[in-house]
């Protein structure tokens, strides 16, 4: 009897180890493949992370299965909250590896994505970023891909927009230790100088700062035409309101993270005229997949008690999911290494446009949407492309 018990325990342990290594799980006769969701649902970037997750959840609702070797597998999403923190990001990434994920989606926030990159690489489980725009996310990591444009492009787009609007002097505000904020700020700064612009003030702040009046007072004295302040959703309304309270009239600009309705709600009338770059506009669907997504996702947002305004990061989350499915089908396998190899060859018609990857694992995106806050809403201004 004891021998039988020991054998059963050994068999159970062996099967759990096999599952933890990645691949498909057999449950009640239905095969299952796990896709991990590596996103911040709490912390400084929790609001944006939730929007990105909603896009992934909706994609899973629209496409709940995938075919491997002619067999249908149910796709199970396993979510891990990286809490907008680099240390927590490592723990969250490890938990997704332990869940048996064959591929992982995320994250909102370049810093946490970079922090988790080696975990995915070492375990040979590919990750597909949705909106993590810092070049370091994929650089030197054969197991990290992404479906968004990059910060060098985004920074250049915003510098060119400022210059074309007549700005000759700019101030830049960035967050210390935040890869997204410091990276995008520097790309804007470099591009603006190359155009002939003058950067009259460079200011930095610590994480969890709530009082920006000191650095904004320095900026006011420099009298810039524009302030470029790429930062988190939580920080944005504080910078905007305090700038206007100090009587600063310069145009305030930022990157993709600022496309969140909570910024307008919290900044109120002070948000009027704020300009940002983003990945998607539901008034101008680029593909048939986009048209289908817009109609269905607006209903899904209402079901989840969200405004029926589609965040660009939700569209990217959806695209990351369908790209993962395409790679799984192309690989004809649930093994991470095979899916990684297939990702290099995918060609997907996504919501945000065609998705094919270059040698670094970055999507060949060449278009950004410029939006402005007008009448308490984000309004489309123009599309900017580069060749």
Q: What is the name of the CATH topology of the largest domain?
A: Rossmann fold
Encode the helix/strand succession as letters: HEEHEEHEHEEHEHEHEHEHEHHHEEEE
Helix content: 40-55%
Q: Please, what is the CATH homologous superfamily of the largest domain?
A: Response regulator
Number of helices: 12
Structural class by SSE content? alpha/beta
Compute the CA-based radius of gyration.
22 Å
Overall geometry comes to globular
Residue share in β-strands: 15-25%
Poorly predicted spans: 1-23
Structurally, the number of domains stands at 2
Helices and strands in order:
Blueprint: H1 2-20, E1 24-27, E2 30-39, H2 46-62, E3 65-68, E4 71-81, H3 86-98, E5 103-105, H4 110-122, E6 127-129, E7 144-146, H5 151-164, E8 169-175, H6 179-194, E9 198-205, H7 213-222, E10 226-228, H8 236-245, E11 251-254, H9 261-267, E12 275-278, H10 288-303, H11 312-331, H12 336-343, E13 348-350, E14 353-355, E15 367-374, E16 377-385
Parallel strand pairs: 2-4, 2-5, 5-6, 6-7, 8-9, 8-10, 10-11, 11-12
Antiparallel strand pairs: 1-2, 3-4, 12-15, 13-14, 15-16
Helix pairs in contact: 2-11, 3-4, 5-6, 8-9, 11-12
Domain Leucine-binding protein: 32-377
Organism: Sphaerochaeta globosa (strain ATCC BAA-1886 / DSM 22777 / Buddy) (Spirochaeta sp. (strain Buddy))
Keywords: Receptor, Signal
